[in-house]
Amino acid sequence: MNKTITATKGGIAINYSNGKSSFIPYDKVEEISNNVQKTYFTMNSIQKSMYRRLMYGMDAFNQDEVKSMDNNVIFKIKNDHIRATDALNQLKYERVYGDCNKLLAVIFPHIKLDYFKDGKYSTLPTLKECKITTVDVVDLWINHKLLPLNFYSLNEEALAL
Questions:
Q1: What sign results for the dihedral spanned by CA atoms 111, 117, 121, 124?
Q2: Could you tell me the residue ranges of all domains in the chain?
Q3: 58 and 67 in contact (C-beta within 8 Å)?
Q4: Are 146 and 80 in contact (CB under 8 A)?
Q5: What Å distances lie between residue 148 and 65, 133, 140, 141, CA to CA?
Q6: pLDDT tens column, 110-133
Q7: pLDDT-derived band of residue 76, with 50, 70 and 90 as boundaries?
Q8: Distance (Å, rounded) from C-alpha 161 to C-alpha 158?
Q9: What are the backbone angles phi and psi of residue 15, rounded to the nearest 5°?
């Protein structure tokens, strides 16, 4: 079966020799206008420490803190950091290569394209270059159960109760 693939302004059009066709729309690009206000999320000290623990792992602690930690706590911090990094790499990979993989999956339906899906063996841009915000990262980690569901409402007063 022959197919003709055309990139149009709205998406990818695929026409098959048997008369069937399909259309894959491009993801909508969010337009930024001057009237739109950006929402910022400011973390308190509890949220910052939880975020830094996942983002930087053992590098978030100084030598004195590391020396006073139990081996089980160190193992848990390292394990959570690896899981958080893997989740971020998957998100970055999807942002960078997701559309390309959709196109290639249509062109080559019998080829498995998820080899680099975890992002470990591919060069990925930074979070800023991928336009991934802190809120995106926190939401991702909440979905992966690395942060609690009530992360946004955590504060010192709530923990004092």
A1: positive
A2: 1-28, 43-160
A3: no
A4: yes
A5: 24, 19, 11, 9
A6: 877 665 565 566 678 888 888 888
A7: very high
A8: 6
A9: -115, 125
